[in-house]
Design a protein that fits this description.
TIM Barrel, alpha/beta, 13% strand, 8-stranded parallel sheet, 325 residues, single chain, 11 helices
Length: 325
C-alpha cells in the first residue's frame, strides 16, 4: 500500500474504503474483510449512520490479529448540526465511542453548512431535516462562523482525541480564509473528484499549501445511480478511452480510474461491499499510466458534479443552499 506524507512522521494510505451507503447489516463484515485483504484507510462519518457497525468490524479485526490499531487510518466527520463549538467535542466523542477507538487519525468538517443542533437523544444521526415529522420538513440553517468551529476542532487535537483535522467540500476561497487564522492548518481536503470533475485548480492549490487532496466518489456516477442522482450514461467507466486503456493494461475500467487518481497525487476512497471489488480496487499498484493516458483521462473533464448541495438540498430537503460557484 502506498501512502501520502502529511509530515510529523504521518502518512495517509493512498487507497481507502469509503463507508457512505454501505448497509448497516454488512458494515461490520465488510470492515473486517477489507482489513484482511489489506485496507488500512477507513473513511467514515456520523452522517453515514453505520459507524457503530464499522467499530465492531475494527474490533473484530484487531482481535483476530489482522492489524493493530496504530496500523489503521480512521477518518470521521463532524456533521452539519454540530458546528457550534460546544457541540464539536460531543460529536467527536460519539464517533469515537461508536468506532470503538481511542483517537481518530483525521476528523473533517463534513460540509461548510451549519444547521440547527439536534440532540443525540432526539435523533442520531441527525440527518438534514430539522424536524422530519413536521408537515413540511426542511433544513434549518443556523449560522456559525467557520472560525469558531475550527477553534473547537483544534482543541480536539490538543486533547489527543484527534491526530489531524481537515475539511471536506470546501472551495479555495474558504480554505484561503481558514488558513489566515488557523493555529493548526488543515491536513486534508476531501472533495468529489473523478475524470468528469477533475478540479485541477483546487488540486494545484492544495498541493501548493501542503494539504492532502482526497477524492471521494473517485469512480464518479456508480454511487449516485441507485439514488437517482446519475444514470449509466454518466459513468466515466463506459468511456471508450478508459476501456481502451484498461484493455492495454489488462485491468478493469475502475482500476484505471483509481490509478489515475493516485497517480495525480490524490488519495482515493472508493466504496464497495463486494469482496471481489474490495480486492480489485486495492490492486492498482502493479501498473502505471503513461503521460498521454493521464492527459487523455483528464481531458474527459465535464465539470460534472454529482454531490452538489445547491441542487439536492432544495429538491430533497426544502432549502436552497449552494456552496459552490
Amino acid at each position: 500500500m502506498k501512502a501520502i506524507n502529511l509530515g510529523k512522521n504521518q502518512q495517509i494510505p493512498s487507497v481507502g474504503l469509503g463507508f457512505w451507503k454501505i448497509d448497516n447489516a454488512l458494515a461490520a463484515e465488510v470492515t473486517t474483510e477489507a482489513i484482511r485483504v489489506g485496507y488500512r484507510h477507513l473513511d467514515c462519518a456520523s452522517d453515514y449512520g453505520n459507524e457503530s457497525f464499522v467499530g465492531l468490524g475494527i474490533e473484530n479485526a484487531i482481535r483476530k490479529g489482522l492489524c493493530l490499531r496504530e496500523d489503521l487510518w480512521v477518518t470521521s466527520k463532524l456533521w452539519n448540526t454540530y458546528h457550534h463549538p460546544e457541540h464539536v467535542e460531543l460529536a467527536c466523542r460519539k464517533s469515537l465511542k461508536d468506532l470503538r477507538v481511542d483517537y481518530l487519525d483525521l476528523y473533517l468538517i463534513h460540509f461548510p453548512i451549519s444547521l440547527a443542533y439536534v440532540p443525540f437523544e432526539e435523533r442520531y444521526p441527525a440527518g438534514w431535516f430539522y424536524d422530519p415529522s413536521s408537515p413540511n420538513p426542511a433544513m434549518k440553517p443556523s449560522p456559525v462562523p467557520i472560525a469558531d468551529t475550527w477553534g473547537a476542532m483544534e482543541r480536539l487535537v490538543e486533547k489527543g482525541l484527534v491526530k489531524n483535522i481537515g475539511i471536506s467540500n470546501f472551495s479555495t476561497s474558504l480554505i484561503r480564509d481558514l488558513l489566515s487564522y488557523a493555529a493548526i492548518r488543515p491536513a486534508v481536503l476531501q472533495v468529489e473528484s473523478h475524470p468528469y470533475l477533475v478540479q485541477p485548480k483546487l488540486l494545484r492549490y492544495c498541493q501548493g499549501e501542503g494539504i492532502v487532496f482526497t477524492s471521494f466518489s473517485p469512480l464518479g456516477a456508480p454511487s449516485y445511480i441507485p439514488i437517482g442522482m446519475a444514470t449509466e450514461k454518466d459513468s466515466a467507466m463506459n468511456e471508450p478511452l478508459v476501456r481502451s486503456i484498461a484493455a492495454s493494461h489488462k485491468k478493469s475500467a475502475a482500476q484505471v480510474l483509481l490509478r489515475w487518481g493516485i497517480q495525480r497525487g490524490t488519495a482515493v476512497i472508493p466504496k464497495t461491499s463486494n469482496p471481489a471489488r474490495l480486492f480489485e480496487n486495492l490492486s492498482i499498484f502493479d501498473f502505471e499510466l503513461t503521460v498521454d493516458q493521464m492527459r487523455g483521462i483528464a481531458a474527459l473533464d465535464r465539470n460534472l458534479r454529482f454531490n452538489d448541495p445547491g441542487v439536492f438540498c432544495e429538491s430533497a430537503f426544502g432549502c436552497f443552499y449552494p456552496i459552490y460557484e
